[in-house]
Amino acid sequence: MELTKNEQTILSTLKDILVETECVYSDDLISSNPKILRGALASLVKKGVIDIDKDYPSVINGETYYPVTYWDESLIKEAA
């Protein structure tokens, strides 16, 4: 599967987060550059690499966050 540089950035961020916890929100993956990485995140969802639960968001300090509920383990291992 061909991935763009921005998609690879998201997978690399996810890999780093998974070292500490498996509680990941979509905002965690795009926080370094939201304007650019939102599209890459949507592309990963469309490709089935990541799944985000839109039905049960968490509201933290008045902000809505969507949990990442699935990720392709094999692609995460390959992430730089």
Please give a structural write-up:
The chain is an alpha+beta fold and about 80 residues long. The protein has one domain: Orthogonal Bundle (Arc Repressor Mutant, subunit A), CATH 1.10.10. Helices cover about 50% and strands about 15% of the residues. The chain has a two-stranded antiparallel sheet. The protein has a two-stranded antiparallel sheet with strand order 2-3. A hairpin with a 2-residue loop joins strand 2 (about 60) and strand 3 (about 65). The protein is globular. The mean pLDDT is about 95.
* Total DSSP helices: 4
Indicate how many domains the architecture comprises: 1
Order of helices and strands: HHHEEEEH
Q: In the CATH hierarchy, what is the architecture at level 2?
A: Orthogonal Bundle
N- to C-terminal separation? Answer: 15 Å
> What is the strand arrangement across the widest sheet?
1-4
Taking the sheet with the most strands, its summary is: 2 strands, antiparallel
Highlighted features:
80 residues; single chain; Arc Repressor Mutant, subunit A; alpha+beta
Summarize the entry for a quick read.
Helices cover 51% and strands 16% of the residues.
